[in-house]
Design goal:
β3 (34-44) and β4 form a beta hairpin. With 189 residues, the chain is mainly beta. Helices cover 12% and strands 44% of the residues. The protein has helices at residues 121-129, 173-186, and strands spanning 9-16, 20-28, 34-44, 51-55, 63-69, 78-83, 88-94, 104-109, 112-118, 138-143, 148-154, 161-165. The chain has two helices and twelve strands. The protein has a twelve-stranded antiparallel beta barrel with strand order 1-2-3-4-5-6-7-8-9-10-11-12.
Length: 189
């Protein structure tokens, strides 16, 4: 089964503003260069119930997908991912027990479930004891069957920038983008 909107690779650029984190989702061209802008999102800092909305462009005139916490101030809360009509298309949740040593998340979408965690155990441990802002943090998500669903790789840059690869065609672009932005936002990068 192929997702309605499968995109095999895209980039996420984070822009810093005083009261928000702003993200640009950019398509990857076949040669790896940056393609067109696919969506923009903003996350309000210190929000009591996390919600991030993705728009077609900076005008914010058309919301195209979003994710929202199920509960306020609950460390075990999950995040529902919605399409433009507010139909649920996915879900993700941090696994706090498993995340004590290495950040771990669960993701669900039509036709798949998976688990992802930081690729490097050493970097995960280092991050828990030292605040090194330029560490490269990579996540790999595998399906229940053991195949790679998607990966998110933080590049060594001053501002956060990620390459998101989605080899599993069941994973909808909107689910992958919401999860990748959620990883950054929830880790307070």
């Amino acid at each position: 089964m192929t997702a309605e909107m499968h995109v095999p690779r895209f980039y996420i650029k984070q822009k810093f503003a005083m009261t928000t984190n702003r993200y640009e989702i950019i398509a990857a061209n076949p040669d790896g260069s940056e393609g067109p802008l696919m969506a923009v999102a903003q996350q309000k800092r210190l929000a009591f119930k996390e919600e991030v909305t993705f728009y077609t462009d900076d005008s914010k005139s058309r919301a195209v997908f979003s994710f929202k916490a199920r509960k306020k101030l609950d460390l075990n809360a999950g995040y529902d991912i919605f399409d433009e009509q507010r139909n649920q298309i996915g879900f993700f949740k941090k696994d706090f027990g498993a995340s004590l040593l290495r950040s771990t998340y669960h993701v669900e979408g039509p036709g798949f479930t998976g688990t992802g965690q930081e690729r490097s155990f050493g970097v995960a441990l280092l991050r828990r004891f030292m605040d090194i802002p330029f560490l490269t943090i990579h996540f790999d998500f595998t399906s229940a069957e053991g195949g790679l669903l998607m990966s998110s790789e933080r590049q060594f840059k001053l501002r956060d920038r990620y390459t998101v690869d989605v080899p599993d065609q069941r994973v909808d672009f909107r689910v992958a983008a919401a999860l990748a932005v959620g990883l950054d936002a929830l880790m307070q990068r």
